[in-house]
Amino acid sequence: MSAADPLQVLASAGKGESTRSVLRVIILALIAGAAISSRLFSVIRFESIIHEFDPWFNFRATKYLVANGFYNFWDWFDDRTWHPLGRVTGGTLYPGLMVTSGVIYHALRALTIPVDIRNICVLLAPGFSGLTAIAAYLLTNEMTPSPSAGLLAALFMGIAPGYISRSVAGSYDNEAIAIFLLVFTFYLWIKALKQGSMLWGALCALFYGYMVASWGGYAFITCLLPLHSFVLICMGRYSTRLYVAYTTWYALGTLASMQIPFVGFLPVKTSEHMPALGIFGFLQLLAFLDYVRSAIPSRQFQTFLWLFAGTAFGVGLLGLVVATSMGFIAPWSGRFYSLWDTGYAKIHIPIIASVSEHQPTAWPAFFFDLQMLVWLFPVGVYLLFQELADEHVFIVVYALFGSYFAGVMVRLMLTLTPVVCVAAAIAVSHLLDIYLNAKSPENPDAAADKDADGKKGGKAGLKSTNKPLVGIYAGWVKSVIVSSFAIYLLLFVMHCTWVTSNAYSSPSVVLASRLPDGSQHIIDDYREAYQWLRQNTREDAKIMSWWDYGYQIGGMADRPTLVDNNTWNNTHIATVGKAMASSEERSYPIMRQHEVDYVLVVFGGLLGYSGDDINKFLWMVRIAEGIWPDEVKERDFFTARGEYRVDGDATETMKNSVMYKTSYYNYQNLFPPGQAVDRMRGVRLPEVGPQLTHLEEAFTSENWIIRIYKVKDLDNLGRDHASAVAFDKGVKKKKPAKKKGPRVLRVE
Amino acid sequence: MRLLPTVLSLLGCLSTTALAAAGGSGGAKPSANLRKLPPGERFNLFHGKATASSAAAPLKLVEADYRALVATPRDYSVAVLLTAMDARYGCQLCREFQPEWELLARSWTNGDKQGESRVVFGTLDFNDGRDVFMGFGLQTAPVLFFFPPTMGPHATPSSDPLRYDFAGGPQAAEVVHHWIARQLPNRPHPPVKRPINWMRWISTFVVVTGGATASYVAWPWVLPVVRNRTVWAAVTLIAILMFTSGHMFNRIRQVPYVAGDGRGGISYFAKGFQTQYGLETQIIAAIYGILTLSGITLAVKVPRIADPKTQSIVFVAWWSILFVVFSLLISIFRTKSPGYGFAVPPFM
């Protein structure tokens, strides 16, 4: 019986409690490993590089923190951004991310492991995603007795594209650690609520404070926990457990959040924090009434008390509305308000509407980010309705609000993903638990007998669960469901890998394209241009560009900028927009006033790169028009037929704008006469390109993506630049100076 | 790629050819004596007309009045809306803006009875002033012209009118008020006063009290529904399915319900990853709903069926639905995202 022995061992191995725990730890470690490694595509394909825009600021701030220490970082006034205003950076950022990497850096240093701060920053997000998977495991285990649900949730959380989108290696953004903190705070909240424990409540507040220090999305927790409590109260489930958990969390958590300079007194002053405060007050009232009720037995009096509680709640709500309209409490900030009134941002705050992350989500995006979880998610929510304990109510409330917010704003898919993973894992594990049970019910009659004994009172539960659970009779039924779900899960893994590899692993600083022979070609214009700035300009040369590139210029070129991705000053951004949208003569004084030395524009016409400045130009115009409606008019950039054109039929205002001129200057010389084509917009350009008077070309990158122009100094002879250029041209005609050959496209 | 360019299309209501075709005989001859009056008296005359009754502003002008009103020199400002209200021209924009314009003119004129801001509001319809429209070479209506004063303390160097286009659709009175106020610095700007909508208040009151009474009366019947867990579960699931199938996108972007495919047929699915149609999201929501329902049935209902044979039949039915519909979903997604390479039979 040698063959039976290993089988026996295997079968008994899964039975012991300690072996199970060991297995569970190993599986969790493997899941964390899978979560980390699936996020490394970009490091392997490109290199260990910080991605996109915002991460470059976080990286720069982390370097500052590591170099100058925590207190200097806290008091940091940055005079190299928002020239000439500067930015009180220490007081206007969420320091959690930088401090986390700083602590890791110093800890590794203390262990004498020499590691570059950049590598810590690049790998922070994958590392924390492993922790998120474990947090999802813990949260799910609080929801269901099934031991496999937690592991499935950890797996889903680890590889769901909805979360990978913001946490690949190099995506060094606040969300990198914030999602872990979000899930873990929820876990601690559930723990505190179930046990009515002050210790867990305090831990919850601690992690809530960490979350506030890390991401502006903390408001999601600030609103969801009171909402959960409110729903519980409405269901008549007020308990001392709820009272202890909530008040501990609120008191300590609010104090913790107020320690962050950027948050400061907002928790007592703004509308988005008012639900938490209101429920805190309401709970005190309920606790008092609960006490009185237990002391006085009269029934009428109890009714009176509940009416009293309801009235107090209504009066409190009314007081809040009045205080808001009187201005004691700041109304909802634009970003939050636009979540409710979805048309608001488009009309009033073009700078919010212009960000593509703030667009609503079409259904393919949901499927892309969640695949089969998107329909397993409601199944899990339904299963939670069966028991509907306090913690299940939390998942239901979270599911509803999470899916609403994710529908309104693409980036909030991130906050929906954890609950989808938890609910879907509950659904799949429930299915597998039923269909993987090797024991079949013996015969229908025996089952019917049991049925008579164990009939549940169906009034409280769902209608569908009135009948008792029998089990699955046929073996083939079990094998069909198990094999089909095995295939679906495999497909899910392949889908996630494909999505991560194709959609979310591009650094967007370095672009990749395919050559006709199928080999990969790296387009590295951004870094080429920033390197040029770093090496060829004065250290305090001010660069004017659209705000998207502010963080990158600060991080990679280390040059002062006028505006950057921290869009705190709309007027300043509008000034840059006006300078870009006006003619050279009008924008020259603006540039002189702001001491601009170089103008940087992004041009995708040669490569067909869609993210260029001409495509963003209308937003610049719109934002500038919001401040100077008389000087910049969006209408002037459209032809009489209402088209936005860049070719020969473009409007005069368009052709004279600094943006148009700097984008297309000299471009026609790349082509045979009259054949210049803008590959992005697919139009033929006029034979005679724009002429520059107040600017001169300083640098153009290999593929013409980045073009840098120097702002001319005042003319030596006191002429205006237009006449000086005209004069120079006249001289040139008589005595042709060193003739420049036509520009040739450098091809490798 | 944070910025999305949007192309704004101009709302043109009326073309010059249509104007020429539809116009009748021209306006009256310019009354020379009115134009000869000194500017101060002209203002008093028109302002007196406008304040004669509370509904007199904006003045309904004919071409002669118009010419007299905008004649130089003038020490007052004129805001004239050139519009085409006649049903023949089908100018939707004109009709939508007209009440706002009247509201603006009335609240301004009645708020400034003394004429301190020295503005006259007028409306010139196409039927009454065809030549004026031709003179400006107008292609579209409505257009608002603002004539600044040419003499007096607020005179501007240019006597040319400023033009306000309705490129963004019909504007609220406040928006136009803001524009006019900007042209009139250092003068009073009487705010727009919207009349109280009594009907709305009354109807809200009636609906609220009626609702409260009805719910009080029906409370014994409503309470079991409110407390029914199955009802709540259904509402929750429907809401989740609605949101995850892109309903909010439809609301915000106001996408069309369906669109033609250019060959006379109907295209149910929009081309491209970032777009969708109304019907498309309903189909997707239905697919998600069927998948969810089969998942629930397999997880909850099937193991509760006591009879082995029935259990097997129900299982096969729901499992095949799940299998086929999920495959259909993936194949629909493939049409939206052409690079997607995964498939499950039968829709390969």
TrEMBL record, chain A:
- Secreted among keywords: no
For this entry, the protein name equals dolichyl-diphosphooligosaccharide--protein glycotransferase
- Localization terms from the record: Endomembrane system
Principal localization reads membrane
Q: In which pathway does it act?
A: Protein modification; protein glycosylation
EC annotation?
Answer: 2.4.99.18
Identify the residues that the record assigns to the Oligosaccharyl transferase STT3 N-terminal domain, covering every copy.
Answer: 22-423
Family listed:
Belongs to the STT3 family.
User: To which species is this protein native?
Assistant: Remersonia thermophila
Q: Which UniProt keywords apply?
A: Glycosyltransferase, Magnesium, Manganese, Membrane, Metal-binding, Transferase, Transmembrane, Transmembrane helix
The signal peptide here is: none
What residue intervals traverse the membrane? 21-41, 92-108, 120-140, 146-164, 176-193, 242-262, 274-292, 304-330, 365-385, 392-410, 469-494
Q: Per the entry, which co-factors are needed?
A: Mg(2+); Mn(2+)
Q: How does it sit in the membrane?
A: Multi-pass membrane protein
Region described as Disordered: 729-748
Q: What class of enzyme is it?
A: transferase
Location of the STT3/PglB/AglB core domain:
542-598
Biased composition, Basic residues: where in the chain?
A: 731-748
Reaction catalyzed: a di-trans,poly-cis-dolichyl diphosphooligosaccharide + L-asparaginyl-[protein] = N(4)-(oligosaccharide-(1->4)-N-acetyl-beta-D-glucosaminyl-(1->4)-N-acetyl-beta-D-glucosaminyl)-L-asparaginyl-[protein] + a di-trans,poly-cis-dolichyl diphosphate + H(+)
TrEMBL record, chain B:
Its principal location? endoplasmic reticulum
Give the UniProt subcellular location, in the record's own words.
Endoplasmic reticulum membrane
Q: Give one Pfam family, short name only.
A: OST3_OST6
Point out the signal peptide segment. Answer: 1-20
Transmembrane stretches, by residue range?
A: 198-219, 231-249, 283-300, 312-333
> What is the topology of this protein in the membrane according to its UniProt annotation?
Multi-pass membrane protein
The record's family statement is: Belongs to the OST3/OST6 family.
What is this protein for, i.e. what is its function?
Answer: Subunit of the oligosaccharyl transferase (OST) complex that catalyzes the initial transfer of a defined glycan (Glc(3)Man(9)GlcNAc(2) in eukaryotes) from the lipid carrier dolichol-pyrophosphate to an asparagine residue within an Asn-X-Ser/Thr consensus motif in nascent polypeptide chains, the first step in protein N-glycosylation. N-glycosylation occurs cotranslationally and the complex associates with the Sec61 complex at the channel-forming translocon complex that mediates protein translocation across the endoplasmic reticulum (ER). All subunits are required for a maximal enzyme activity.
Q: What is the name listed in the Swiss-Prot or TrEMBL entry for this protein? A: Thioredoxin domain-containing protein
Source organism per entry reads Remersonia thermophila
